[in-house]
Amino acid sequence: MRALWAVVLSVSLATTLGACVTARPIPASGAPTEGLLLALSPASLGRELHLAQRVTVFRGSSTWAFDAQLEADSSEVLLAAFALGQTVARLRWDGHALEETHSERTPDVITPARILSDVQLAFWPADAVRAGLSPGFSLEEKPGERLVRRDGVPFVTVRWLDETPSSSRVELTHLTFGYRLVIESKEAP
How is residue 154 annotated by DSSP? Predict the structure, then answer.
């Protein structure tokens, strides 16, 4: 995992002119936010992830796609997003502070903190997600689908579109923020 981080860091420094860089704590689970913003511990995943991903963002009539590398273990979550050969975002989450870099070209609604939240909503176990929800939010899960409600009103849906032994596709629809993600994942070597 450290090897990916070193490569991402060096590529990021070389290619992200005009990027915004911050290292900051994320509000603890249950802290008030403008909406659903998970910040679950890496250990609550309960397994390791090594995924190569293709993420497509749909918002209104706009579409934005990027490739990502996601790695997670019990101590940290690392994600690097690439578009047109350049690093557009990277994050490192250790359960306490989020180190993030993102390009100014990244759509405002897709922040590194929101990417972390979406990854955790889609890939973390339902019990861990439920435990990390802020007051007023609830999670319903049935085969192939999750629904997060805020004060009883649908807020985010997660649907697994297909899954094979070597890949999967998941769709997150943020009803409140007005965007949809389709994440195609394959095990990274």
Answer: E
Our count of domains for the chain comes to 1
Contact 119, 70 (CB under 8 A): yes
**Quick one: tokens of 3?**
């090897």
| H helix runs in 54-164, sequence order | 112-123, 126-132
What domain range is 174 assigned to?
Answer: 2-187
Residue 33 is classified by DSSP as -
DSSP 163-177: E-SSEEEEEEEETTT
- pLDDT, tens digit only, all 189 positions of the chain: 544 433 333 333 333 333 333 333 434 433 334 577 899 999 999 999 999 999 999 999 999 889 999 999 999 999 998 888 888 888 999 999 999 887 776 666 667 788 889 999 999 999 999 999 999 999 999 999 999 999 999 999 999 988 766 679 999 999 988 899 999 999 887
Cβ burial of 91 (10 Å; 0-12, 13-18, 19+) is: buried
Calpha distance 120→53 (Å, rounded):
15
Q: What is the helix (H) or strand (E) element at residue 59, kind and residue range?
A: strand 49-59
Three-state secondary-structure class, residue 12: helix
**CATH number (domain holding residue 11):** 2.50.20
